[in-house]
Amino acid sequence: MYVPARPSVLYHPFQPAFEKQLSSYAEYKPSLSAPFGGGIQFYGFYMDDLNAGQMFVIPEGCMSLVICCYPDRPSANICGTLYKGRQGLFARSECEYFVIRFLPGYAEHFFRYPVGGFSEQEIPVGDVLPHAAELLERVVEQKTFEERVRAFEAYYEIYIRGRLAIPRLIEYLTDQIIHSRGTLQVTDLSRDTGYSSRYMIKAFEQYIGASPKLFSRIIRFQHVLELMEHNNYKETLEHIFELGYFDQNHFIKEFKEFSRTTPKKYTVQGTAGSLGAG
User: Three-class SS of residue 62?
Assistant: First the structure.
């Protein structure tokens, strides 16, 4: 019998600055039958002098392992869940970057560490992950994006094994939030599951690195960006009330919090170019 994939593993965060401005951008979403169980995605790109330190990263509710593949001076940082958009995460120029994105809830299994401790931070992977030097060596010695994916998979099979897993509560809550496009309230989730808001917040901070409320707002923002890919500003405004925004001012304020620009400026200037412009 066909069982539809869960919303969480179908979630595909959008990073406009990278996907639209970098011609070298490539991504890979493994099959849901892969050892990761759909919990990991990959993307990569070449960072030139012009864009180094300038690329604007928006919140996506995920944690990432970012590897700079300099042959002689490689480095790797764990980038925790972002609460607001930020520049400066990809600061090394003339570098091939390889990024392993852990979908919401899955990073804790891989790193064996509560991911709330990484939120809004960049931490050298060697400080946390056993055999990090081997992972770095395996990835950096490869020449193509596809070869780096295979190198990570080989490392995974040796040191992690099996499918990435998350607690059923986190699995259910993230599914509900993503399926609803971030419109559910914490009280709704508490009533639905029987768990207190306090307990859910604590669990979310451990496995997601953000509260259920903030995670929902990030998912809603990601959905708004998706709408803007297919609609103009006026058409997007027609959806803001069904997405739970109180009014246009609320929508603009939250959009600017995550992107440092207004939604109108974002659409008029051709999307990615206005991010972080203030």
Answer: coil
| Cα angle 83, 181, 252; round to 5 | 55
Rounded-to-integer distance, Cα 39 and Cα 111, Å: 13
Q: State how far the Cα of 139 lies from the Cα of 149, in Å rounded to an integer.
A: 8
Matching residue, tokens 């069982």: 3
pTM over 0.85: yes
Q: Domains plus CATH for the chain?
A: 7-159 (no CATH), 168-274 (1.10.10.60)
Residues constituting the chain: 278
Per-residue confidence in pLDDT tens, the chain, 278 aa: 444 677 788 899 999 999 999 999 999 998 877 777 689 999 999 999 988 888 999 999 999 999 999 988 999 999 999 999 999 888 889 999 999 999 999 999 999 999 999 999 999 999 999 999 999 999 999 999 999 999 999 999 999 888 888 999 999 999 999 999 999 999 999 999 999 999 999 999 999 999 999 999 999 999 999 999 888 888 889 999 999 999 999 999 999 999 999 999 998 765 565 677 66
Query: Which residue in 145, 146, 108, 147 sits closest to 128, CA to CA?
Result: 108
Report angle CA 275, 257, 187 to the nearest 5 degrees: 135
Residue 79, CB half-sphere, CA atoms under 13 Å: how many? 27
Output the CA–CA distances (angstroms, integers) from residue 175 to 1, 194, 225, 256, in the order listed.
21, 16, 19, 26
